[in-house]
Amino acid sequence: DGVGKPFLVAYADHKPDASVLQQGAEIEVENFSAVVTLDDENRYKAVSTAVALSPWAYYGIAEGDDYATKFKQGDYFALQVYGVGADMKLTSAQPVTHYLVDFRNGVQAINKNWSTVDLSSLGEVKYLLFFLETTDVNAQGYANTALYFTMEKLTVDTIEE
Question: Is the pTM of this model over 0.85?
Fold first, then answer.
């Protein structure tokens, strides 16, 4: 809640090509930058988390910087969360997508607050993979926007045997 509570600042990879994260294929989680591992013998169902922009991404989006271009109508910056089960396969065909900034459809306000993201569609998870997608990319397709986000209050439920 921003009152003496810790939160995570994370770097995440730019959203990979769809061929990298295919339903049914084995996922090598160690190849990705932002991974949460539920590392014990219990089984868990994803519930929710709270996320917000990091300051570096915020200022690049709001004002531009040496790399990023100030966002304009049509731009967006989205967090995508994938679940991976103990079998090392995706737990759902689609990620959970949360738009940290969304300048589509006439909106041009940047949310500076924490937003709760429902992760329940990911089902039973052993790992959570986080990626960021931005419309501000260079000619080679690499992100200009700083690929950082903040997260707190990750909630999972224990699945009883």
Answer: yes
